[in-house]
Amino acid sequence: MKVFYSDHYTIPLPDGHRFPMEKYRLIRLALLKHGVVRDSDLSEPPMPSPETLMMAHTREYVEAVLNGTLSDFQVRKIGFPYSAALVERSLATVGGALAAAEEALRNGVSGNLAGGTHHAFADSGEGYCVFNDLAVVTNYLRAVHKVQRVAIIDLDVHQGNGNSAILGGRDDVFIFSMHGAKNYPFRKVPSTIDLDLPDGTSDKDFLSLLKDYLPKVFAFKPDIVLYQAGVDPLKEDALGRLALTHEGLQERDRLVLKACRAHGIPVSLALGGGYAKPIDLTVEAHVGTYKAIREVF
Questions:
Q1: pTM, entire model
Q2: Tens digit of each residue's pLDDT (9 = 90 or more) over 14-29
């Protein structure tokens, strides 16, 4: 299985910043240590062109990011200080998503050890998301006629408001989201199906709902599934408010991946969120997702 990773995914942040930037490097090291992936499985993603980014974002926004002319307000909404390293990170993240999707179309499954930046809108970023990799991938694959119908399964604890703002209401895209009802973003943009979960939702309730609703995604007959496999529903997550265990998250991943395989639908994984303290718990949960891929595929 080919997995995409770049050292650009990790960038310096000011002391005390709440985003756990080190998790990307730690996940790669843990996957290698446990033999879940090998060095030969990891590939550096190509950088996307500005024109590719503009398939989901406005020209004005893309140029402002690339040229360093974002306003202070725009930078505050993103949540990271602006830097050349942030631009490279954002480009590499989208590049990894594009490469993983194309690899999934060739061989059934692939993943990007970053991404799932589902809060970025066409003309702005927010919530630690600069460019929306899921929207760029969707529009790129449609534009080059590699697929006709795309399904996004978004199981991050935070609703993908940017996904729905850019892609919602189309008959060629199906967005299924399960997320915390009282969590960020506080103004949610409607997906095809939104399941708003109460605080403290357990493995049992989460998995029961997922089993009930997954068939609706596959009834859409997508040509590819983009799976946002955020691990912030974990009970120990600092920003999650749900109560899933590591076992529950891994069973969640198995359910999605087994459904993709049973229907013969390629699946490309985005890393998504994870903010547990200690960060080792988040790393363990992300590694669990890749263990599930090995098990199913």
A1: 0.97
A2: 999 999 999 999 999 9
Question: Which backbone phi and psi does 97 adopt, to 5 degrees?
Answer: -65, -45
User: What does the alpha-carbon distance between residue 131 and residue 122 come to, in Å, rounded to a whole number?
Assistant: 8
How far is it, in rounded angstroms, from Cα 189 to Cα 177? 11
Using alpha carbons, select from 93, 24, 90 the residue that is nearest to residue 62.
Answer: 90
What digits encode the pLDDT tens for the residues 155-187? 999 999 999 999 999 999 999 999 999 999 999
How many Cβ atoms sit within 10 Å of the Cβ of residue 115?
32
Cα separation of 171 and 181, whole Å? 26
Nearest residue to 5 (alpha-carbon basis) of 34, 36, 27: 27
Residues in the chain: 297
DSSP letter string, the chain: --EE--GGG-----TT-SS-TTHHHHHHHHHHHTTSS-GGGEEPPPPPPHHHHTTTS-HHHHHHHHHT---HHHHHHHTS---HHHHHHHHHHHHHHHHHHHHHHHHSEEEESS---TT-BTTB-BTTBSS-HHHHHHHHHHHTTS-S-EEEEE-SSS--HHHHHHHTT-TTEEEEEEEETTSSPSSPPP-SEEEEEPTT--HHHHHHHHHHHHHHHHHT--SEEEEE---TTBTTBTTT---B-HHHHHHHHHHHHHHHHHHT--EEEE-----BSSHHHHHHHHHHHHHHHHHH-
Q: How far is CA 106 from CA 92, 224, 268, in A?
A: 21, 11, 11
Report the candidate in 52, 48, 37 with the shortest Cα–Cα distance to residue 3: 37
Hey, what CATH class is 3-10+19-296 in?
alpha beta
According to DSSP, the residues that pair with 177 across neighbouring strands are 154, 194
What ranges do the domains of the chain cover?
3-10+19-296
What is the rounded end-to-end Cα distance, in angstroms, of the chain? 9
